[in-house]
Amino acid sequence: MENQYRHYGSDRSGLIYGFIFNGKEAAQELHSEQAFRLIKDPNQLATDHFIWLHFNLSNASTERWLREHSQCPNEFYDILHQGSRSTRIEHADQQLIAVINDVVHDFSFDPSEIATLWLSISPRVLISTRRKPLKSVDHLRDAVNRGEIFQSSMVLLTHLLRDQADVLTEIVRITISRIDEVEDHLLADRLSKRRANLGELRRVLVRLQRLLAPEPAALFRLLQKPPNWMSENDVRELRQSSEEFAVVLSDIASLQERIKLLQEEIAAHVNEQNNRSLFVLTIVTVLALPINITTGLFGMNVGGIPYSQHEFGFWIVILIVSLITGIAGWFAFRSKNHD
Predict the structure, then answer these.
(1) What pTM did the predictor assign?
(2) Distance CA 335, CA 339 (A)
(3) Which of 3.30.420.10, 3.30.460.20, 3.20.20.70, 2.30.130.10 would CATH assign to domain 2-268?
(4) DSSP letter, residue 111
(5) Are 108 and 135 in contact (CB under 8 A)?
(6) First to last CA, the chain
(7) Is the distance from CB of 103 to CB of 29 less than 8 angstroms?
């Protein structure tokens, strides 16, 4: 029955998966019964052991179950319902609570595909919850399944933050590739729908930066006053992770500026094309004006039409119209050259 529930993403309590770590060997996956027993009483764990439990918040019973069985602080449940989801890490009852933004597993550069991960971190237990499958958490789980060794819950958090930075680096790399493609189309004068593509990229980057920009500052505040159960190595690793993340945010800001400049250049290019088309239309209208006026006048069914009985009247009118058209065209092109 447990496998059946896992096939659909989580069990009755909302648990997707859990692991137990001892800091010396590869983590072991926890069965639901083991996870539930340990989360109720973390003191059953050995001094060098800790657990990671990952929950699906879309499961309606998850929050209720956590309130009844876990030791997460009340602040953790408060942030689950706050409208603001900007990244932050805060102290709460000798624990840490964190809000981390990430992209969904099948990210396709849609702003709606940026989702949130909520965490409660203590020396013995790390609880993470999300509503949509997230890339960074998947990378962390892959590392655990590969047998990577984690000495503490903070090392696990640091690895998650670095996975988040790696995901953002990949997004930056793909964005640069797409911008280069747009520039190539601009130089080749084949813009098609590239302006809309740039707009989508810029919206994604703006939302990512807005949500993720507070993260380095949040880590800095945490490093200024870390909980007493954090080791010096944890502080050092978090500081390095913060620096790497700040570099990625700087790259995102640079990409936004590059997209903005490229959009302005494309807009100028389009305006130039429109002006050229408008000029051609104006020239055609000006050149057609004499013959339209002449045919209108000579087509009037009244007496006194000049050259109506003249042997070469038609050719005389053609000569007059051609002369006037030539003069009008000369004036039009002369004014264009002066511009």
Answers:
(1) 0.74
(2) 6
(3) 3.30.460.20
(4) G
(5) no
(6) 80
(7) no
